[in-house]
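[job 0412] stage=fold_complex status=start
inputs:
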Amino acid sequence: MKLIFEKSIPGRGQDIFPACDVPEKLPKKDMLRKAKVNLPEISENEMGRHYTALAKRAHGVNDGFYPLGSCTMKHNPRINEKMANLPGFAKLHPLQPAHTVQGANELITELEEFLCEITGMDGVTFSPAAGAHGEFTGLLLIKAYHHDRGEAERNEILVPDAAHGTNPASATMAGYKSVTIKSNENGTVDLDDLKAHLGPKTAGLMLTNPNTVGLFDPNIMEITRLVHEAGGLCYYDGANLNAVIGIVRPADIGFDVIHMNLHKTFSTPHGGGGPGSGPCAYKDFLAPFAPGLTCKDGKEYKRAEKSIGNMTGFYGNFLVNVKAYTYLLTIGKDVATLAQNAVLNANYMQEKLKDIYPIAFDTTCMHEFVIGLDPIYRKTHVSALDVAKALLDYGIHPPTIYFPLIVHEALMIEPTETETKETLDEAIQAFREIYDKIFSAPESVQQAPQTTPVLRLDDTKAAREPHLRYKFD
Amino acid sequence: MIDPKELKYSRDDEWVRYDGDAVYIGITDYAQSELGDLVFVNLPEVDDEVIAGEALGDVESVKAVADIISPVSGVVLEVNEELLDDAALINNDPYGAWFVKVGDVSDEVELLTADEYDAYRG
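[job 0412] stage=fold_complex status=done
writing structure:
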């Protein structure tokens, strides 16, 4: 398939812009471009076909099952889009005076109340643009807190080895030393290793609960107590909030600050690079450090007294917040059913597969479970990557693979609550057929996929010699 | 050619080759085959201190990033910059592709002989 730049013909164009109906006023001459900008020149008809062809070659939640672990690819109700497209929201300018944006302000204030109710926290900043940005914000709040108390020597963030890769990355970005805490044989935090690493340098702990192997840490109350006793704060990575939303409030199990991925748990489309929304909720004692400007009284924008600054302008990706708000109003008081059905679906799939596929930690899981294909790989040389590729031929988006790092040949499956039993049964059938092929015709799995627009891609070459942009002559 | 039998090994899958007072450090054939095709390497700089049992850098494959745990404490004398340009050298010749040469060696983790390492990973 040709790239859009390759389809470009000089001089060809389209009439999508209406004629100018105001006096033309050009910027000063020295502010004008010296050379013409390289944009594809293509008719509207050809452009439409180009993007439709691309869409046909892709796989999204509208095409089929998408059990991508730790990513919560649930159905995004279409009403969210309708509300976000209302001109009163979509056509706002961020610099409009507060009195002209009362509806938007009311929405953000109510959404803050909802999220406080869900997390048990006292305040929310909508400044962060997405999840990792929310983590970074939370860590800057923790840092500002310690510095304000004259404890700047606290420079270590403890991160379990099962954590999302963003956790140590955010800690490093925030200027902290990231210290790895081991998991125990049950796949949860090793308390002895935690105790051994707590001390006067501890700034905090980052924890995903349930963690990336889909397990709720049974020692969570003791973990957060130990961190607090050492003078640290507890950060909740909300990536897996879908497993406990409406059932467990992070603040009630000892967390001080949390980010939520509105684009995962609160059903706003994601997966194509955004836009996301990663609001960060915090307890009262962190409020003085909150970022950005807020308009609590509906009259004027104010900054918190010891604010860490701006994470983005204004309320991050505001329209994503509109979608999350719509979702919560649609769900109403049934928020807990989201978590219950997410956990039910994951356990259903796990139960139906565990007689043949090795489950990494064979116990009742939360919203996702992890297959550790290593024993099968040793015998057959069919890897987690091969199984993932084979699923493509069944019209299923592969699960997350080779993560978490503590499980060899990992396949991490998160069905989400919005899939029907019939869809799950079809996926289970696909997994079982692939299992049979692993032993009867392993090369067919190793050579999968066969029905996709492109076959097995050379990941190594892509990483070693990336071509990231079109090179003009 | 390097004879893997002549090397010492850590339980974290690094090898150590003694060269007078200094040591060369790399990762084992087992480690490279577990990681798969390597695409990037992060290495320390000359004069950096490394500590036995702590990460001196990392290697990245298409499926994972793994720390290179230093088997010794000391000071980096040389860095194999070739690896920064072509991480595949490690896959092709894990015992020839040294990562760093370390001098002023003051401490080391418990090291295994080749036979002991084979038994450990076999």
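[job 0412] summary: Strands of chain B lie at 8-9, 14-19, 22-27, 38-42, 49-50, 55-61, 65-69, 72-79, 100-108.
[job 0412] exit 0
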